[in-house]
Amino acid sequence: MSLAGSFGGQRSLVLLASAGLVSLFALGLLAFSTPSGDASAGRRLGRHKPSKRHRRKVYLRGLYNLGNTCFLNSTLQSLSALSAFSGYVDGCVAAIPQNSAGSGSVDAVIATQLKHVLDLLAPQPHRVPAHSPRTLISSLSRRGQWVASRGEQDAQELFQMLSSALRAIPRVEEASLFDIGFLSSDRSAKGGGCSTGGPRAKSTAAAATTTIENPFLGMAASRTACVRCGYTAAIRHFTFDNLSLSIPRVRNTSVEECLALYTVIDQLDDFKCRRCAIVATLERLKLEIEGARSGLAGLADKPRKARRVEETIDRLLEQQRRLEDALATDPEVELAGIQLSAPPAGVSTRQTMIARPPRVLVLHLSRSIFLPTGGTTKNPARVRLQRFLDISPFTTTGHISIAASRPISGPVPPTGEHSAATLADARRRNCLYRLCAVVFHLGAHDSGHYCAYRRVGSADSDPSRADMDSVLAEADRWFMISDAKAVEVSLADVLGAGNGYLLFYERL
Ligand SMILES: [Zn+2]
């Protein structure tokens, strides 16, 4: 199974065997009673020993591989770990108009079948047989033929297709991000954590009114600024449902370093600054006016010609006045009839940051390396993950700086070791996330196998209401799922695996 933009895939089990995972999966659907977790993180954050009720048996349902469908299986398993997403799908299904043309649309059918699969993937107290997602694949292939094809499938493309299908359902009305106020502290839209299981909400009508906002939708702010004059063009905002992050060409890195690379201040060498162009035009006009005035002195005996020169001077003075007005007020104002001079070659900076953090932050770790030969290969860098991710350093934090050489945002807290206090601060800023699922990729770029790590939390906790101590104390249980097989692993296994491709973080 290939990564984005790559070529045909091979059957997965060969690679799985070569990755040495068969021994783990030989355990099949065993449920372990050993509490899992990152022991060092637990000590650092004062985590309590999980009580016996957290050690109950949990079984996860696998999904059969129907021929290169591991990309679908791993994505569905990851999505099923997100309580905010389950609520959203419930809301979408409840909003489908019944007994009308809309109820039979491709997207409505996809939503209904997706809800069915998510219900089946909820953690169970008993061993359960794997499910065949054939019907869902058939519906998805009506939206994109590639889903059912033998090659070029990619987990990120599938995620984007599902996200857009749900947004396209008739009568699903999403709250406008601009209406909400993307820079405000929006605690009301906060989602729950990663639920375990238990029965999912049956009251879809209620869900429709409370969770209709796509939990993946966030907003980013992009600013381009001229280093020469400091002018900042209007800050552009755009929505996203996942962020595609480049991975540096190193052996080991972290998700924070990838986010830092995404939000770094880039230098552009081919920028044409509007303000610098106006300044250059003003300088040209002043020279032209000066030249015309000096020429006027020799036209005392040629009144008609002198009048034409005076008219030219008046026209240039009028242009000069409009340009000076634009500089003083708004350089972007329409300047019809004035030919702007080319500004001197300049350097600008561009920076993109997260302006409104989504309820579920989906990070795509782009592992494609484009070779000079035209081919593509996989970046094998190991990317360390954090159980809790504080995105404060990558957000605008509500204060926007227009200085070209400075970050868009105001002062950000230092990164580094997390303590309960710094995590609580990040949570107050809506910037604290908990890792809930990972789609990872084994093998080469143009072949290989997708699997998922999926978190199962405590049934009796609601992170959206829990205090920070309770959130930190909650036991994490993690499962690695490869198609039809699931095996429990430790949190340390997940955080240290390094081969993540799609990361799913739910806001606390
Ligand atoms: Zn400039």
Automatic annotation (TrEMBL):
GO terms (BP aspect): protein deubiquitination; proteolysis
Gene3D superfamilies cross-referenced by the UniProt entry: Cysteine proteinases
Residue ranges of coiled coil: 282-329
Keywords for this protein: Coiled coil, Hydrolase, Protease, Thiol protease, Ubl conjugation pathway
GO molecular function, one term: cysteine-type deubiquitinase activity
Cited PROSITE patterns: USP_1, USP_2, USP_3
GO cellular component, one term: nucleus
Enzyme Commission no: 3.4.19.12
UniProt entry tagged with the keyword Transcription regulation: no
Catalytic activity: Thiol-dependent hydrolysis of ester, thioester, amide, peptide and isopeptide bonds formed by the C-terminal Gly of ubiquitin (a 76-residue protein attached to proteins as an intracellular targeting signal)
SUPFAM superfamilies named among the record's database cross-references: Cysteine proteinases (SSF54001)
Domain USP: 61-508
Protease is among the record's keywords: yes
Stored PANTHER family: UBIQUITIN CARBOXYL-TERMINAL HYDROLASE, UBIQUITIN CARBOXYL-TERMINAL HYDROLASE 30
The family this protein is said to belong to: Belongs to the peptidase C19 family.
Name of the protein in question: Ubiquitin carboxyl-terminal hydrolase
